[in-house]
Amino acid sequence: MQLTRAGFLALLWLFVLAALRVVRSDIYAASGLRVAMPGFRKSGQKTRGKAPRQLVVTHGALAGTRISLDGRPIMIGRADDSTLVLDDDYASTRHARLSMRGTDWYVEDLGSTNGTYLDRAKVTAPLRVPLGVPIRIGKTVIELRS
Amino acid sequence: MALPVQGKAGPATGQGADQDKAPTRRGTELVLLGFAAFIVSVALMLVEANQEQQLTFRIVWYGLAYLALFGVAHAAVRHWAPYADPLILPCVAVLNGLGLVMIYRIDLALAERALQAGREFNNDVPKQIAWTALALVLFLVVLRVVRDHRTLTKYSYMVGAAGLFLLALPAVLPSAIAPPINGAKIWLRVAGLSIQPGEFAKILLLIFFAGFLVSKRDLFMAAGRRVLGVDLPRARDLGPILFAWGVSVGVLVFQKDLGTSLLFFGTILVMLYVATERAVWVVTGLSLFVAGCLIAYQLFGHVQQRVANWLDPLATYDQDGGGFQIAQALFGQGTGGMGGTGLGAGRPDLVPLANSDFIIAAIAEELGFIGLAALLLVYTLLAMRGMRSALAVRDSFGKLLGGGLSFLLIMQVFVVVGGVTKLIPMTGLTSPFLSLGGSSLLANYILVALLLRISDAARRPQTPAPRKPVPQTPIAEAGTVLVERPK
What we know:
- The structure holds two protein chains of two kinds.
- Chain A is α+β, with helices and mostly antiparallel strands.
- Chain A has one helix at 2-24, and strands at 54-59, 66-68, 74-77, 84-85, 96-101, 104-109, 116-118, 121-122, 127-129, 135-137, 140-145.
- A six-stranded antiparallel sheet of chain A has the order 2-1-11-10-7-8, with no helix packed on it. A five-stranded mixed sheet of chain A has the order 4-3-5-6-9, with no helix packed on it.
- Chain B has helices at residues 26-50, 58-80, 88-117, 125-145, 156-172, 197-226, 239-255, 258-276, 279-299, 301-311, 324-336, 359-392, 396-420, 438-459, and strands at 188-190, 193-195.
- Chain B has a two-stranded antiparallel sheet.
- In chain B, a hairpin with a 2-residue loop joins strand 1 (188-190) and strand 2 (193-195).
């Protein structure tokens, strides 16, 4: 009687411990972006280890503008409170957002009229922005540099 | 080196060739499910032995049937969400199974008492088993229909309206259809079935709020930057929180349901905080909450009664609606002590509503502190995996929804366990998956299906559009300016 009682409690805790073991072997990466698994990482990421430090406008009316990146999201659009205020007929009020997740920067289109392009691809979902790849918004082109 | 991946989610050939196969961990899930079914069978066996029922071979069949039930759910997950978190389903299986065993055990005790008193008694456990099966069917449907949680954003306003409608339904309907039970007017009685639409409304409103906050988040963020996050937010930004507050107060006033009101407001508050990372929202919300509590305490007799029962259950022990229930629950937990009386060897039926609101007290009595702690850890694991998926998922709607759903679950556990152990006033909620009650079970299975969907999205390796290729606008039609790399 006492034995079964203790045995069942032990069984319950065994389940909890088994579950915790699974958690340990299956921890997500600290950045929260990807499941960290040995041998599961894209090879050939040359930009690894070099974090983007500034955003540079390469074309358009604001060409030459630099914004240093401090981890806060960067709003781009015609709205006055944007981080990068564009005076461009082809840009929407709230056009795009660059935000940092983990160590990488992602670009996200905020439902703009004319779209955001990462290199030559139209941004429909948040996309990772590698260093030196142009993002086009209206007539403005920006890129991340270290 | 594209390796074959089981299921339909193979990496798109040609693209992402360097992608190693990401483990799906479905095997782990199956093993843990087997373990869960074993625990449930052993629990049933102990109950039978201690209640001096005949120990027959059929317990093994019950255990296998339970495993088969969850085996179907497992197969569905394997098929429709192959990368989903491997821990969520087994945790649910343990909780639900132990709940069924406990309800069966209390049935036995109540049936005996009814026999002695010469009354008729209806067993609750067949009903609950039917609800479990139905809930699993619903789980499959949600998993099948919601192939990508982001599609829910498209319907967020509709979903929100439906949620409000369901929430308000019992309050407006006449008492013939919506009878007040135990003082709360939250049930609908349709064709002999009692349904609690509020349980579903919670999830629907959560989906709405997640969608709403994602689309309007910039407003909150912009305001925050301007005032350095210290000053009060602008008045018009207070809209959502005031709305949530109004809804919870409405629930409190018209339905006399403390638990749902608390749960709803708390969850919205946490989602606002998650969306904006601004502590000022929490402070604002908490002060609104305290104000609401004080007003409710002044205005409503039942709130005063609950608080009085909480402060001293023995003082109101003999009164109608007094501290009898909570005092009995405390006695039961005291009897259980550290190691419990053993399954089937206690007297949990002495607590009113032992199989629904107070099932935690029954478990604490028969499994003791050690057993209850294990169960609470299982709940915590469940919520933690949900939160982890929310952290890892790549879209903000998924983050908010996952965080909100996980928090809803764990907050419900807190409110229930806190009430039963007299940490906070009793509010009358059901413990997720354990308690008797079809609506709660159905709603929680929907919640789990959504969490699995989000965790699947979070853990799926980032192959470029493995299932649904995004229509790419041809570069010529898009009117792209030729972009040169700067020299």
